[in-house]
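Hello again, I could really use a second opinion on something today. For a while now I've been wondering how a particular protein folds. Please have a think about how the structure follows from the sequence. Here's the protein in full, and shout if anything looks odd to you:

***
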Amino acid sequence: MLIRSRRWVALLAVVLLCASGAVAARHRGRSGGTPGEFDYYVLSLSWSPAFCLASPAAAECGGPRRYGFIVHGLWPQNEGGWPEYCDVHVPVPDDVVQGIADLMPSRALVYHEWSAHGSCSGLQPAQFFALVRRAYASIVIPPPLLRPTVATEQPTAAIAAAFLRANPRMPATAVVVTCSGQSAPRLREVRVCLDRDLAPRSCSAVALRGACRALQLIVPPLR
């Protein structure tokens, strides 16, 4: 019986080692797809006031400008998953970093998003970040979320509904609202699914998994 127990312990150790190795490989940035081979994009808009509450020393949080939504990323997506860290090793030119700073104010964010996601787009850095700008420009931010001066608490569904009203061409399943925090969830991101021509489209099931489950969330004001 003792021998059998030891065998199960050894087997479990191997399984855990393999699992941890797989996670580590993902974080080390091994290639997860072929550049240019994907189905659609997810435009991720991060609510900067909530991010700055958690990370006040971040680049976007200490300057004179008050950010609302900034671009977290434009992510190539497949119907059943997503590619990332494709085998492309082209640096982002400094003029491209500076040119996208109004939408992505952190240089580290620009580098990370290119490495993790832009590398799978099949585009060069200047082309990819020009596409990021076009994607952002294609979305109308609901007026109540442009420059809120006081914190509000509202139904999570109301955030998605506001985006749908401001963007009538969006299918109801094109918008995913995410949140952070347990006891008092805060608006974290709004993600919009776009086809490869940047037209709104329904998100696949895998893109919907990160949706906020809280019925109500807090929208922190601009700082």
Notes: The helical segments are 2-28, 48-54, 94-99, 107-116, 125-137, 156-166, 205-208. The longest strand covers residues 69-77. The first helix runs from residue 2 to 28.
